[in-house]
Amino acid sequence: VPRGLNLIKHATVLVGSERSLEDFQEPGQITYPVTGKLSLLAEQIEHELNSHDVVVMVSGDTGYYSLLPYLKKKFPANP
Fold first, then answer.
1. 32/13 Cα distance (integer angstroms)
2. What average pLDDT does range 3-20 have in this prediction?
3. Per-residue pLDDT reduced to its tens digit, 45-63
4. CA–CA distance from 56 to each of 16, 17, 34, 47, 61 (Å)?
5. CA 64 vs CA 5, 10, 61: distances in Å
6. What are its GO biological-process terms (predicted)?
C-alpha cells in the first residue's frame, strides 16, 4: 500500500472515480474522472501517456468488475 500511495501522490495524471479523486488528488495533478465513456477515457489516457505518467485508481474486484481487463487490452505495453 505505501508504494501505491506514493505513486498516486507523485503522479502527474490521476484517473479514478470522482470519490477517489476527491480523496487522493494532490494540488497540480491533472485528473480524469471515470465515467461510462470508456473509449473517450482511453483516448485521454493515451494522449497523456505521450508526455506524463498516469496512475489509474480502481476499486472492487480488479480481476472481474473493474477497468483492469479493459485497460490491459487497450494498453498492453503499460503495466
1. 8
2. 95
3. 999 999 999 999 987 766 6
4. 6, 10, 9, 14, 15
5. 23, 28, 6
6. methylation
How buried is 23 (Cβ within 10 angstroms: 0-12 exposed, 13-18 middle, 19+ buried)?
exposed
Comparing 21 with 78, which gets the higher pLDDT? 21
Radius of gyration over every alpha carbon of the chain, rounded to an integer in angstroms: 12
Q: What is the mean pLDDT of residues 59-75?
A: 77
Domain annotation for the chain: domains and CATH numbers: 2-74 (3.40.1010.10)
